[in-house]
Amino acid sequence: MTERIREFLRNRHEDGPCMVLDLEVVQDNYMKFARALPNTRVFYAVKANPAPEVLSLLAKLGSCFDAASVAEVQLVLAAGATAERISFGNTIKKERDILRALELGVRLFAVDCEAEVEKIARAAREAGIDKREVKVFCRILCDCAGAEWPLSRKFGCVPEMAVEVLEHAYRLGLEAYGVSFHVGSQQRNTGAWDVALASASRIFRECAERGIHLSMVNLGGGFPTKYLKSVPAVQSYGEAIFRGLTKHFGNRIPETIIEPGRGMVGNAGAIEAEVVLVSRKSKDEDEVRWVYLDIGKFGGLAETMDESIRYPIRTEHDRDRKAPCVLAGPTCDSADVLYEKEPYMLPVSLEIGDKVLIEGTGAYTTTYSAVAFNGFPPLKSYVI
Amino acid sequence: MTERIREFLRNRHEDGPCMVLDLEVVQDNYMKFARALPNTRVFYAVKANPAPEVLSLLAKLGSCFDAASVAEVQLVLAAGATAERISFGNTIKKERDILRALELGVRLFAVDCEAEVEKIARAAREAGIDKREVKVFCRILCDCAGAEWPLSRKFGCVPEMAVEVLEHAYRLGLEAYGVSFHVGSQQRNTGAWDVALASASRIFRECAERGIHLSMVNLGGGFPTKYLKSVPAVQSYGEAIFRGLTKHFGNRIPETIIEPGRGMVGNAGAIEAEVVLVSRKSKDEDEVRWVYLDIGKFGGLAETMDESIRYPIRTEHDRDRKAPCVLAGPTCDSADVLYEKEPYMLPVSLEIGDKVLIEGTGAYTTTYSAVAFNGFPPLKSYVI
Predict the structure, then answer these.
(1) Rounded alpha-carbon distances, angstroms, from residue B326 to A122, B271, B272, B342, B349
(2) CA nearest A152 in B: which residue?
(3) Catalytic site residue B64?
(4) Which CATH number fits domain B89-260: 3.10.690.10, 3.20.20.10, 3.40.50.720, 3.30.1370.10?
(5) Chain B nearest C-alpha distance from A234 (Å)
(6) What ipTM was estimated for this complex?
(7) pLDDT in tens, A108-118
(8) Do residues A270 and A332 touch, judged by C-beta distance below 8 A?
(9) Which CATH code for domain B267-383?
């Protein structure tokens, strides 16, 4: 929460919740990543917050970009970055979208199975592009122990299969470029990269035995934002990763990539919301209060799903006594509850009409928000 | 799935998923509700699908409307219904939104606590409206046994408190109009209304003892759509509700309201989607397949949350052998998985590029869809 955001909000008089993002914090985060991992290229995960101002700033700072769709590729190009700075990092792509990305100049693609490799080879042929110029990296499954939000098995394959997927790419004439993994979102254990780097180095060796020389390890994202608990500094992630690389690759350290999303923009944004109602379900004063805000799960706070992410919430009464409450959104949807299993501590003096600030909301909020659920408009966003 | 929808889809050549809604089915559903509960006014829950064509059709058929926000009130007015046919059914409202609704002519409001009653009284005074013309009904908590999607405790208060809330409304000069409840979404037990009607009749009696004569019971929604399991016919809901009313209110049956949403439009819509990828996580052929569609949790299928709603899915290979698969959406979000805990049976011959039809998707899909998550556009919708 920066003074610039506070200043902006003091001068805002519109109705409805909004997210304000401070570009100075984004710049600071980028510099920290660049310093902590000086030999690693930073690919910002555009999906975390695709605001044009964020993309232009990062493009100017020299960042590369991890795009999840053709639309994101186009946003990055519009922000002034060239196509060779873009990775199409989604392992699930329509063949016609791969073709469009190739036509837009993208040459770096994620895969996790042979079918996806074949799509890329066919699309390159159709686009009349030399397949040796098209690089693919294979995502592997990875233990997410230590992550606040461990990932599902949706992306990646087992390491043994990755060798075959990369060989398949090689046989089809593409460049078998490397390996990627993701240690889980909001990863607080800096050692988590070690196990994954061990797998990656085994894949490098097994590919080399087949005559295929990989060059790159994509270290993924997972770099945390500070919510309620404190998190290690970026520098300590850099050191742990460098130790892992040295341990598993010796003096043949590969090219590396990181894909921070949350870690780049999460702490740069704050949402201002309003208390719509404070009530109890019975006259029993011991029963927990319900506090309803004008933003909820469908208005941008989807990451409260299963109460995974607990955002810090500031009010104007934070010096008063606090008591637990169930926190919910404004829609007529019974699932639109933010924190209930573990109630949230808020001041007992909090009242209808009060403003609250939900911090650490620069990532995965604005674009998650529903089009018009219950008639409520999507979350407004300001980049300052 | 109607022939008209099939015909429409045969002639569609655009890219991307879409939802097609057949108005003839909506009309048929409305007539079934009207016939099954001839003395009950139907308030369509606009949030289920606010498409202007749906609202105009229902307005012409004589339906009333349950609105969750001022934006929904405006949609209903634009569709040609007058304000006295609108209920502002959200128990969580900003005072200035109540004021706007009053100015637009709405006179019927849901509440579940005294603070909300006070907002309505203040707003009526500010709008210069005679408070006796403004009706409030109090929502009570209700056991959701039998519902496929039981509701949280988000809406409603315990019945004993409802008496005090209604008395508070009465003292402030508003019309204490009645009681509402919701027996849980996708309620397959027609007897579920009985328990709630018993509570409602107790509230009527206790209010009468305080000199307050309630007139209305809002029976809520919960009427199911047929997904994979069969559901009772609307007629049997009507009969069960009528029995409950007679049992608990004797020969003084109150005015009644129902608020079908899913039951009105769910089975009128189908989503056409495309298989983007079929893959396995290892070379082990016994391992479950992953099937990735171009629509997922963030593209309109949010109700697959916790795998609550299992939609029927048709493919062009339905005569072939089926095998379990994990079904997932196209985004780079690891939570964007539709069915995994209980894998979904799909034909083994299903291939990349195949179209699939997701049935029963006329309700709670289009407006749930995210603005631009991962760069994917919101779900397209066609009403025919």
Answers:
(1) 26, 19, 19, 8, 15
(2) B334
(3) no
(4) 3.20.20.10
(5) 23
(6) 0.95
(7) 999 999 999 99
(8) no
(9) 2.40.37.10
